[in-house]
Design goal:
mainly alpha; 0% strand; flat
């Protein structure tokens, strides 16, 4: 039993880490805020992220799963999430000329990082689609071992997110003196382009699904 729980924990950690490594709105804001507010930005935002994921796991265990795999829900998530990512990406690109690690902070600051972690996670279509597919399948497997199995899965998943975002936030915050404004703009610009790519991908997926249903 102990070996099985450890296996669930380790595989959940590795699986979640592969997802955490993918850039997204949460990582983008973590990079931006860490350069201004320090190394605690990453773990604080992941705390909000973990609260949302805990709520989602409880909802899935309570019977939400069939709702999430409906075609109309997929279309809604793809269209709304794609629009949010499109807005974020274009806003970041427009702000690039004014970005500076030493000057006035760019754009509106996120006062509540826990709430920001919740909102940005919920606004990412990839996050909900991941949980409706990969996450749900893993939960069903872990349920064979009761609540200990669910706990092993959840904590392995959260620790992967926490480890990666702590590393990113600490590296950005401690490396400010080694970062030029030019490098900083390129980093944020690259994240913005990635968000635009993902917005087009999700919008295309939603439109394609809607056309197929018609």
């Amino acid at each position: 039993m102990e070996i099985t729980l450890l296996t669930i924990f380790c595989t959940s950690f590795i699986l979640a880490l592969s997802g955490a490594l993918m850039p997204g709105p949460l990582l983008t804001v973590t990079v931006s805020e860490s350069s201004r507010r320090g190394a605690l930005v990453g773990p604080t935002m992941i705390f909000g992220h973990s609260l949302l994921e805990l709520a989602l796991v409880l909802a899935l265990l309570s019977g939400l799963a069939p709702f999430l795999v409906r075609d109309d829900v997929f279309i809604f998530i793809s269209m709304v999430g794609g629009a949010v990512l499109l807005w974020m990406g274009t806003t970041m690109l427009r702000s690039l000329p004014q970005l500076s690690l030493k000057g006035r902070p760019d754009g509106p600051r996120s006062k509540n990082l826990v709430l920001t972690g919740i909102v940005l996670s919920a606004a990412n279509p990839y996050w909900l689609i991941w949980w409706a597919s990969i996450g749900l399948g893993y939960i069903m497997y872990a349920m064979q071992f009761g609540m200990l199995g669910i706990a092993a899965f959840f904590f392995g998943h959260i620790l992967a997110d926490l480890a990666w975002y702590c590393l990113i936030s600490f590296g950005i915050a401690r490396g400010r003196r080694f970062f030029s404004d030019s490098l900083y703009r390129k980093l944020i610009g690259g994240c913005a382009v990635f968000l635009l790519f993902f917005s087009c991908w999700f919008l295309y997926g939603g439109i394609n699904k809607a056309i197929y249903l018609v």
